[in-house]
């Protein structure tokens, strides 16, 4: 019996030692230096490395691609965009997968689930918006968009630190008034600036590009427009080719003077506050002079045009009921450009040259002023005219048209 009791005591002691060892192992895993503690320490070190150093590496690679002239334009330029945006999209997807794996762990708390779910959604959204432009631009690879740019700007942005290269940009406005910005190489930047400065800052750029990634496919600097530029955006078929028709196209609408001011108002133009309360007296008596005032109109595109409002009736009327007999637009305020304002024959404010006007309209009635061409009718009772001004480079930058008698010649 004594041996049996000793045997049971021995078994109990062994079992007790085994339980102690198990507990010690569990404690060791959680204690500093344990397996779980080491894993947590590795994640603690890896997370900042991924968050801080990976973006720096990516930015360095991006900077190298964008500064390399061979990769800036054309198919290689699109491949650069694929590598950059596609790479960033892939990183976002990988992060989303890591967060998903962590999300399905059994020991995940509620707050961790919320945070990781939000992170997954943000990463997937980022991947979508990074990759979407690449997919949309694929159909344009064989037939990219084309544009002619004016009001060129050459911008330079210095890189920050050792991991970011300098960036060079070409910006300008196309014939429809839309503003564009393209990243170019240092070589093309220097080339463009040299031509720009050497031509008194009157320089055009002919570009083809992918519209969703703004990737340049071709770039050509020009001191004057070619024939294809004028054909790219044909004028409205309602716009006459004869300047004696006194029609003018503003945005998509053609107005033939004289025209009721109501035609402008119906198209969304609004009389300025300072002019809205004007009244124009009627013309009384034979050969009475018509009352007239210059009135400012604006539209929802924040464009402004000055119109000469006449009252050809015998009664006093509010300015809103008057007749527009003149229009004046100055290109220098940049409210209009290209297809936004066109003259008979399709001439464009800010694009057409003095030579274009002479070729289409012939010799002017008066060209005594250095930068002005004037075309007038021969009717002394109804003297109508175009007064076209040009800048130092010979680009059309001022248009004034008048077609309305100043007095009643029928009474």
The computed structural class is: alpha+beta
Average of per-residue pLDDT values: 82
Number of helices: 9
Using DSSP, what is the number of strands? Answer: 19
The helix fraction, in percent, is 25-40%
Q: Based on Cα principal axes, name the global outline.
A: elongated
Calculate the terminal CA-CA distance, rounded to whole Å.
149 Å
What is the strand content?
25-35%
Rg over CA atoms: 37 Å
- Low-pLDDT parts are none
Q: List SSEs in N-to-C order.
A: HHHHEEEHEEHEEEHEHEEEEEEEHEEE
Main beta-sheet strand count, sense and barrel state: 8 strands, antiparallel
Describe the structure concisely.
Helix content is 38%, strand content 26%. The chain is built from 9 helices and 19 strands. The relative contact order is 0.08.
Descriptive overview:
- There is one protein chain.
- The radius of gyration is 37 Å and the shape is elongated.
- The chain has helices at 2-30, 35-67, 75-103, 110-137, 186-198, 227-232, 261-266, 273-276, 354-361, and strands spanning 145-157, 167-173, 179-184, 204-210, 215-222, 247-250, 253-256, 259-260, 270-271, 279-280, 291-298, 304-311, 317-318, 323-330, 338-342, 348-349, 372-376, 385-390, 396-402.
- The strands form four sheets. Strands 8, 9, 11, 12, 14, 17, 18 and 19 form an eight-stranded antiparallel sheet that branches. Strands 3-2-1-4-5 form a five-stranded antiparallel sheet. It has a four-stranded antiparallel sheet with strand order 7-6-15-16, with no helix packed on it.
- With 411 residues, it is an alpha+beta fold.
- The model has no long low-confidence stretch (mean pLDDT 82).
- A hairpin with a 5-residue loop joins strand 15 and strand 16 (348-349).
- 38% of the residues lie in helices and 26% in strands.
